[in-house]
Amino acid sequence: MGGSSFGRDERLVKGSDYNELRDTGKKTHTEHFIIVTRISPTRRSRLGITASTRVGNAVQRNRIKRLLREFFRLNKDKFGPPIDVHIIARKGSVGLKYAEVCKEIEGRIFPVHQ
Hints:
alpha+beta; globular; 4 strands
């Protein structure tokens, strides 16, 4: 299984990181998410999540963000070369179960290296 932590060095925190990723990354759409990926300029895979108020109330947005962080934490060792990932939750994503989140995202993040 993946690493047991999700530290600050594994998060996209600066606006400039998000902007660079948006400008140079590969964008993929799924039914419930927009996923932007690129090879990371750092030595670690990093994750950024956006869930606007359109997605749901604060409790719902925080739940979907927890599920996405858990997926990343448990699967980050499968990425190969370190990647930056920005996942944007879309309306309707709040009702997903963890297994559904994994199924929808899994096939979309790993092909970034091809």
